[in-house]
Amino acid sequence: MTPVRVLAVASEVYPIVKTGGLADVAGALPIALKTHGVEMRTLMPGYPDVMRLVSGAAEIRTWPDYFGGPGRLLAGFHEGLDLFVLDVPHLYARPGNPYVTTEGVDWPDNGVRFAALSRVAADIGHGLVPAFVPDVVHAHDWQAGLAPAYLHYDNRPRPATVMTIHNMAYQGKFAPELIGSIGLPWHSFNVNELEYFGGISFLKAGLQFADRITTVSPTYAREIQSDEGGMGLGGLLRARASVLSGILNGIDIAVWNPEEDPHIAYRYGAEDLTFRAANKAVLQQQFNLDSSDEAPLLGVISRLSWQKGLDLLLEAIPTILREGMQLALLGSGDRDLQERYQAAARANPGRIGVVIGYDEILAHLLQAGSDALIVPSRFEPCGLTQLCALRYGAVPIVSRVGGLEDTIVDIGEADASGRDATGFKFAPVTAEALAGSLRKANAAFHDKPAWRRLQRNGLATDVSWRKRAGDYAALYRGLVAARA
């Protein structure tokens, strides 16, 4: 097997920096690719957390003035990941979230910050690091979207390029005046290149110039070609449909493993789910819920937003209460939704528990102790929480969109699909349809053999990166072969 060298470009990488699923993919995929003969190194910004973890990294390039201040390119390692780190303190040495201020407002220079990341990615593609000249540059989301554009406009021999969309809702839109200051040609400001509704879009740049476009599920790949799902870029994606494909995300099954998970109260395996009840009891205690094994406990781990459909779940709370179910929610986001969930918990003590924020340990306990996990998203490129739920025997209740459609087999469709049922899916994405699925799930929960089958089918599902990494490896090799 001929080795392939790939430079991945990502603004966040688990376990170093994480705000969402992008980090999980950027952290897990390089390790999974090693068995497929792919050497992947990941380029990321030198945020404070990154610099602390790669303190022994080797300095391989310095600049007295890199996009307005001194900068360095470092090479290092962390937990099996081969990293390039762009250390430019005036751009990245900021506390907290990588993208927003402590007030939750985008950093005003985000365009420059992530143009700098893409520029050095293109330079590595051209041979800036002689010891690692990539065959492919793989850009993740809008923050890396200019990498294929820089490589295109450099008009030199270049590696192949891949652009992966993790969420169409985030497009990296900026004023056109940015073009000159980040080293792109002014002639690129036209509708067939970077121009986007009077400004420029980093995501559009990547979609326009990458050799291949991927997204994180086959269904989402179809959805984003529509005007609604494409969010302004549907026409471009339809025009490039021949190079667009969906490859499902996986999860790190070493991190998400109920047999060895250090974060849960009691470990268990697929052969014996007895200890799930003990985890449920601890979870109920953590969320101040009544102690009961007979009340189905619904878990939610989510950003609280319109996209995630968490307003619909609020409307379904009367159904949850009537059906004798409990709800444990972990998440943060929209302030109004946070307050409404907190009010629902106060009004229904013992039945509804809410923790605002994110806690990795509590997230693992929710997977291990919930009877079912709800993901009612209006759109969902792939989704990872439902994959973790399958791994832990928490039965998913999901909307029929994106990767949720691709990864869960509805209890009513198992025979027709030839696959074993693993959960419940509802459509349209309304409060009424969600309530109907909750009632069906409640009925199945009280049929113990039927519920146990759903759990075991989920536990038997391959949610790892094994096959998915193979799909990426085949994509890279096909690109390299086409350019030979």
TrEMBL record:
It catalyses: [(1->4)-alpha-D-glucosyl](n) + ADP-alpha-D-glucose = [(1->4)-alpha-D-glucosyl](n+1) + ADP + H(+). One of its GO terms (biological process) is glycogen biosynthetic process. Residues 5-238 form the Starch synthase catalytic domain. It comes from the Bacteria. InterPro entries: Glyco_trans_1, GS/SS, Starch_synth_cat_dom. Its EC number is 2.4.1.21. ADP-alpha-D-glucose binds at K18. Transmembrane segments: none annotated. One of its GO terms (molecular function) is alpha-1,4-glucan glucosyltransferase (UDP-glucose donor) activity. Pathway: Glycan biosynthesis; glycogen biosynthesis. CDD domains: GT5_Glycogen_synthase_DULL1-like. The keyword Glycosyltransferase applies. GO terms for cellular component: cytosol. Keywords: Glycogen biosynthesis, Glycosyltransferase, Transferase. Residues 287-441 form the Glycosyl transferase family domain. HAMAP family: Glycogen_synth. PANTHER family: ALPHA AMYLASE DOMAIN-CONTAINING PROTEIN (PTHR45825:SF11), GRANULE-BOUND STARCH SYNTHASE 1, CHLOROPLASTIC/AMYLOPLASTIC (PTHR45825). Synthesizes alpha-1,4-glucan chains using ADP-glucose. Belongs to the glycosyltransferase 1 family. Bacterial/plant glycogen synthase subfamily. This is Glycogen synthase. The lineage of its organism: Bacteria, Pseudomonadati, Pseudomonadota, Alphaproteobacteria, Hyphomicrobiales. The gene is glgA.
